[in-house]
């Protein structure tokens, strides 16, 4: 009995509607590196054994903003045994090369955030190293800091550039000023979201070997080896072939290991350089990782919406601001994605989005699953419930009247050219959750109950791949090679960080070649051996890079067929024989493929108009909550995630992505509160920054619809970020249903929930 | 690891007598070290101020649960896992079993001890409210002998106790006088498992013919020490429950606790939730 | 303060069935000794504060966080780590189930999670939903949302019930 109950409740075997016939794609083949992971054999960076290793540590700023006066080395430490690096020891440029060249590797004169790196130390004894780190004191003359988005936006103090603004965008569709006079109703709202720590379970870490003769080699936990490569070139002023970056098994990223590894890799390499090429390892402990590395951008969104009395959207004016922290890093790009998603999957004739990323004296906020979209979608999907109420419609009926349809346009003017069916998704999601009946039943039963239940939803989309012309600019390349034994190897810089890159690439190559999945290997990303297939970000690995894997694999087959070594159809043995013959006659058998944009994609970077993404995944998520009015704790009791994602390449991995993303969204909404004190994270321990445990996560029921995307491999679209988007608004919409109180910020901690309920009462 | 290990000592004396001998010979120099679930966290964070420790984990004199007609006596090294597995405790002392179940995860429950939870003297500890409700008594032993005292008299201030430097907490004794009581335990920590309490509330009552025959209330994380709320108990004892009495009890409890704002929660929240829990408990009495 | 500096302790214990003599500072974390002296790097460090469970191992059959155990306290014990679960080429039923169900994503919590699952199924061969959730609540996973991990545990106990 117990087990049957469990299977029904817990094992969300995704229900899919499929059409294309495939042999490997769409099948739950075993994860490539699964065996290594379950036996403990998988080697993460801290598992590397290195002879003659030095351990590295970072001395950081204790203040948020100021001018460095003096660095003092305390007594009781044998300083002559230590390798010490400061800004003046940097052989190249003291800047982390990313987009804007504003962030130093080591602060030289000014510090702009708490925990900013100032000095590096290395020693063979990691315990003595820690003692030494504590014995360094840096005297800093404080300068007036800015800690909040609102203060920065108000420009009370200028801390970055001329106006504290890293980047701003304006999206203008129609003329929103025309909408106000026509409107029957204008509804305004303001929404805020907090920072979120990635909390990958493996903290950041690298090992580096660097000297002038051999160049620089770094092994580490990372998402984007070529980002690190680019940064090290500038830091050491070396030619490309003198820098090599190798990704080791990576214990989770979620965006947290997109840009940050360039920093820690540079630090370890600087120490090794100074130590004459001795290997240096830096592994952050949890406290350092939490306090010093990136987090999700806090945001504030203001909505002003014009509607007719029958619930048609006429105009949307959206002011979207994100807090970028002290340096520009990726804020412009995060802002971009948040801006483009700010008006959601709705058709509205007049839309204006003003967006800006502003500076504060906190450690830079960075990439985090969803990349700005969860922030702006939270605001929109909360606001639309408010607008619906104002016009006297149910949240679902209001959305039904405004969902975008094929042939209509999104906020950037992009014409939707795929057969999107948001209404159909909504109907199915409601059926799966018994939404209507629960909506009525809960409202009835909540009267006088101390635990109040509610159900709510969010409807949204998420663009796959880089924005606009981003993919064209990247020009990603993938290689596929075959050995004389007929083993096929995929060469790409796209990293396996848990999401299943190795497995997906092997499936796509196997499918393209008609070979067994077991015959395919995916090489460890190593800039010395693999081409640049772009960063592992932006829900692009399966859709964009997977497509390149597919076409590079096809190129391999074609080479063999053109050489007359392989027939139109072939067995595995014939494949092996052909590879052997080719390798003997012509040497290495390799094929490369480079990104080509789908036809008819137009993007105007200046006006922020056009086809922002080649395609989108579309979704409706429904959350059921219970709010305990004794403790003011809200729990999610059931969660349905329904999405249209193109072809599902691997049903178990795909469902795993959705479940994991939903769990992170639940965390962001109800549990994860970064407590700031003077720009510094105060609760930088797992004990005090709490993420949901196995006991807290509700059954997450995942359902896919498959509308194959012609330009994705086997019709696949991107899904990695999508599940981060819908949870927060769906949960807060459900809490409003349960309590009658409209909350406008996340995280919604019990303390805030209490305040809201008491103010209402 | 943010501590420099050579600065620290950990020794494992042969037996209890040898342990007490060291504690007497060098008073204040050595402190007991049980399952390590608190001290190792501090050591790792570089926050362990004391340097010299005696491991007591292996001492058989401090282990086991003894049941007599009048008492259940637990060795100080009884773990949260031991508590959950003990039938008499599960049956007669459900508050303690609940507290043990809700402290940390399984791996913490394997190593965390009741003695450690008490001697560590954190106001946010999860078993002390239960122990207070059960009128627990503590046995402190030293080379000079043993003394028993009411647990209620043990804590004197934030992380301060009456225990002397040469003493060791050996046993915890629970009188078997609460069978048939209605009990209530709520640990409030936002997430369901592995949380540090924002409020921890334990209560027990005996209802005789519609009146509260006896009642005991204890709350954690709302004052510098865990609090036994005697004035509120007095107010309730012997009375029939009604809305007015519950309101008065809430007001009284609010006077007996003194919560603060910290990174985990706010004073307002703790105050309101503690009184809500009291009302919830009283409302469930039959 | 005692001015005596701590000596290195010699500790004998059994690790994955092999008798070992370890030499370390008595307060050295079992986690570090396993990883650095015995090269058993399957046991991971995620937090160093007993919160995440990535360092979970079994000591005398009890699930513990090896980051919170001073090595002095494992003298005479039997320790099992993830490396000791599979026998030759045969994976433990829980390991096999984690692969099939998709219970491992990034893999960093996996060894600890698997040790917790093994201990849970030893205690409760037929766990309920609540048993599984509570049994794994001390092991944090940031990738899976736990669903596939629960699925793996259910599969493992189903497999254990099958005739071999």
Describe this structure in words.
- The complex is a heterotrimer of chains A (761), B (286) and C (164).
- Chain A has 761 residues and is α+β, with helices and mostly antiparallel strands.
- In chain A, helix 9 (331-340) runs parallel beside helix 10 (373-391).
- Chain A is globular.
- Chain A starts with a helix and ends with a helix.
- Chain B is an alpha+beta fold and 286 residues long.
- Chain B has helices spanning 16-25, 39-45, 80-85, 87-92, 94-102, 106-111, 114-119, 128-133, 230-236, 243-256, 267-284, and strands spanning 9-11, 30-33, 52-55, 65-67, 71-75, 137-142, 145-150, 155-157, 160-161, 168-175, 182-188, 199-208, 211-220, 227-228.
- In chain B, strand 2, helix 2 (39-45) and strand 3 form a beta-alpha-beta unit.
- Chain C is an alpha+beta fold and 164 residues long.
- The N and C termini of chain C lie far apart (61 Å).
- Classes of the chains: A alpha+beta (761), B alpha+beta (286), C alpha+beta (164).
- At the A-C interface, helix 1, helix 2 and helix 18 of A face helix 2, helix 3, helix 4 and helix 5 of C.
Supply Rg of chain A.
Answer: 26 Å
Detail the poorly predicted runs of chain C.
Answer: 1-5
Structural class of chain A: alpha+beta
Main sheet: strand order of chain A: 3-5-1-12-9-10-11
Task: Count every helix of chain A, treating DSSP H or I runs of 4 or more residues as helices.
Answer: 20
Principal-axes geometry of chain C comes out as globular
Helix-strand makeup class of chain C: alpha+beta
Largest interface comes to: A-C, 65 and 63 residues
Number of strands of chain C: 5
Compact summary:
Chain B has 286 residues and is α+β, with helices and mostly antiparallel strands. Chain B contains eleven helices and 14 strands.
């Amino acid at each position: 009995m117990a087990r049957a109950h469990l299977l029904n409740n817990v094992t969300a075997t995704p229900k899919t509607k499929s059409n294309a016939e495939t042999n490997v794609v769409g099948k739950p083949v075993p994860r490539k590196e699964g065996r290594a992971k379950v036996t403990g054999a998988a080697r993460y960076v801290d598992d590397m054994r290195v002879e003659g290793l030095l351990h590295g540590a970072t001395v950081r700023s204790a203040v948020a903003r100021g001018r460095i006066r003096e660095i003092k080395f305390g007594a009781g430490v044998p300083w002559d045994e230590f390798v010490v690096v400061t800004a003046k020891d940097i052989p190249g440029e003291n800047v982390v090369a990313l987009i804007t060249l504003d962030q130093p590797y080591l602060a030289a004169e000014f510090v702009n955030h708490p925990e900013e790196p100032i000095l590096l130390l290395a020693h063979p004894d990691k315990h003595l190293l820690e003692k030494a780190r504590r014995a360094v004191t840096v005297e800093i003359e404080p300068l007036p800091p800015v800690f909040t988005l609102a203060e920065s936006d108000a420009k009370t103090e200028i801390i970055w550039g001329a106006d504290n603004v890293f980047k701003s965008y304006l999206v203008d569709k129609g003329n929103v000023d025309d909408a106000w006079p026509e409107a029957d109703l204008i509804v305004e709202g303001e929404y805020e979201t907090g920072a979120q720590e990635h909390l990958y379970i493996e903290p950041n870490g690298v090992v580096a070997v660097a000297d002038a003769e051999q160049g620089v080699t770094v092994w580490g936990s990372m998402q984007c080896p070529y980002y690190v490569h680019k940064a090290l070139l500038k830091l050491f002023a070396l030619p490309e072939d003198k820098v090599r970056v190798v990704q080791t098994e990576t214990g989770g990223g979620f965006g947290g290991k997109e840009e940050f590894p360039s920093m820690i890799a540079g630090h370890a390499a600087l120490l090794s350089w100074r130590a004459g090429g001795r290997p240096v390892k830096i592994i952050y402990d949890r406290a350092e990782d939490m306090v010093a590395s990136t987090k999700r951008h806090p945001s504030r969104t203001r909505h002003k919406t014009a509607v007719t009395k029958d619930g048609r959207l006429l105009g949307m004016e959206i002011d979207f601001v994100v807090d970028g922290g002290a340096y520009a890093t990726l804020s412009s790009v995060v802002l971009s994605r948040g801006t483009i998603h700010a008006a959601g999957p709705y058709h509205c004739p007049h839309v204006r989005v003003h967006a800006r990323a502003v500076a504060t004296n906190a450690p830079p906020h960075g990439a985090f699953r969803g990349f700005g979209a969860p922030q702006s979608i939270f605001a929109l999907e909360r606001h639309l419930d408010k607008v619906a109420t104002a016009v006297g419609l149910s949240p679902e009926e209001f959305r039904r009247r405004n969902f975008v349809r094929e042939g209509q346009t999104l906020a950037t003017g992009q014409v939707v050219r795929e057969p999107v069916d948001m209404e159909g998704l909504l109907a199915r999601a409601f059926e799966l959750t018994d939404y209507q009946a629960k909506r009525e039943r809960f409202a009835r039963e909540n009267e006088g109950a101390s635990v109040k239940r509610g159900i709510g939803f969010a409807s949204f989309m998420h663009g796959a791949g880089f924005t606009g012309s981003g993919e064209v600019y990247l020009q990603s390349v993938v290689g596929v090679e075959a050995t004389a034994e007929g083993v096929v190897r995929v060469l790409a810089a796209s990293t396996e960080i848990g999401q299943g890159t190795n497995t997906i690439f092997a499936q796509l190559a196997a499918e393209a070649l008609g070979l067994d999945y077991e015959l395919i290997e995916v090489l460890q990303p190593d800039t010395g051996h693999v081409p640049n297939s772009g960063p592992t970000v932006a829900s692009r690995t399966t859709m964009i890079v997977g497509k390149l894997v597919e076409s590079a694999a096809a190129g391999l087959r074609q080479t063999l067929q053109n050489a007359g070594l392989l027939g139109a159809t072939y067995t595995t043995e014939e494949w092996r024989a052909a590879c052997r013959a080719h390798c003997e006659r012509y040497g290495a058998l390799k094929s490369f493929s480079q990104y080509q944009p789908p036809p008819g994609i137009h993007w105007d970077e200046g006006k922020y108009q056009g086809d922002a993404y080649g395609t989108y995944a579309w979704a409706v998520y429904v959350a059921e909550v219970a709010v305990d009015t004794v403790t003011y704790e809200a729990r999610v009791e059931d969660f349905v995630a329904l999405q249209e994602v193109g072809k599902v390449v691997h049903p178990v991995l795909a469902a795993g992505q959705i479940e994991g993303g939903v769990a992170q969204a639940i965390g962001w909404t109800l549990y994860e509160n970064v407590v700031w004190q003077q720009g510094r994270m105060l609760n930088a321990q797992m004990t005090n920054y709490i993420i949901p445990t196995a006991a807290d996560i509700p059954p997450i029921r995942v359902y896919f619809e498959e509308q194959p995307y012609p330009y994705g491999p086997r019709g696949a679209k991107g899904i990695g970020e999508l599940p981060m988007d819908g949870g927060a608004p769906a949960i807060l919409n459900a809490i409003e249903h349960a309590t009658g109180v409209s909350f406008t910020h996340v995280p919604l901690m019990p303390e805030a929930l209490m305040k809201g309920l008491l103010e209402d009462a | 690891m943010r501590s420099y290990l050579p600065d620290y000592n950990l020794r494992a004396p042969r037996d209890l007598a040898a342990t007490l001998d060291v504690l007497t010979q060098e008073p204040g120099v050595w402190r007991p070290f049980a399952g390590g679930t608190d001290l190792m966290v501090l050591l790792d964070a570089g926050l362990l101020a004391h340097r010299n420790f005696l491991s007591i984990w292996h001492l058989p004199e401090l282990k086991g649960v003894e049941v007599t007609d009048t008492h259940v006596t637990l060795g100080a090294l009884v773990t949260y896992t031991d508590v959950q597995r003990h039938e008499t405790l599960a049956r007669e002392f459900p508050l303690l079993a609940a507290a043990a179940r809700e402290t940390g995860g399984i791996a913490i429950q394997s190593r965390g001890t009741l003695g450690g939870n008490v001697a560590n003297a954190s106001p946010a500890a999860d078993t002390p409210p239960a122990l207070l409700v059960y009128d627990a008594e503590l046995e402190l032993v030293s080379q000079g002998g043993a003394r028993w005292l009411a647990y209620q008299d043990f804590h004197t201030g934030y992380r301060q106790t009456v225990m002397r430097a040469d003493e060791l907490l050996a046993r915890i004794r629970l009188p078997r006088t609460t069978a048939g009581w209605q009990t209530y335990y709520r640990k409030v920590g936002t997430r369901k498992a592995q949380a540090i309490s924002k409020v921890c509330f334990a209560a027990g009552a005996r209802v005789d013919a519609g009146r509260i025959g006896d009642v005991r209330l204890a709350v954690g994380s709302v004052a510098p020490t865990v609090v036994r709320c005697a004035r509120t108990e007095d107010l309730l004892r012997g009375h029939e429950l009604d809305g007015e009495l519950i309101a008065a009890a809430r007001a009284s409890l609010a006077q007996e606790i003194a919560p603060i704002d910290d990174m985990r929660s706010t004073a307002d929240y703790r105050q309101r939730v503690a009184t809500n829990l009291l009302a919830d408990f009283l409302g469930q009495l039959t | 303060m005692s001015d005596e500096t701590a000596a290195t302790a010699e500790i004998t214990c059994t690790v994955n069935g092999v008798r070992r003599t370890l030499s370390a500072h008595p307060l050295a974390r079992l986690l570090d000794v396993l990883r650095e002296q015995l090269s058993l790097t399957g046991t991971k460090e995620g937090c160093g504060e007993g919160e995440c469970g990535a360092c979970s191992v079994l000591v005398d059959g009890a699930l513990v966080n090896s980051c919170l155990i001073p090595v002095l306290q494992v003298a005479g014990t039997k320790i099992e780590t993830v490396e000791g679960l599979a026998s030759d080429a045969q994976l433990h039923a829980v390991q096999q189930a984690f692969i099939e169900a998709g219970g491992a994503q990034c893999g960093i919590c996996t060894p600890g999670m698997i040790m917790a699952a093994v201990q849970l199924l030893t205690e409760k061969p037929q766990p309920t939903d609540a048993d599984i959730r509570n049994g794994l609540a001390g092991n944090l996973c940031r990738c899976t949302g736990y669903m596939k991990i629960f699925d793996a545990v259910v599969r493992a106990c189903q497999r254990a019930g099958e005739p071999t």
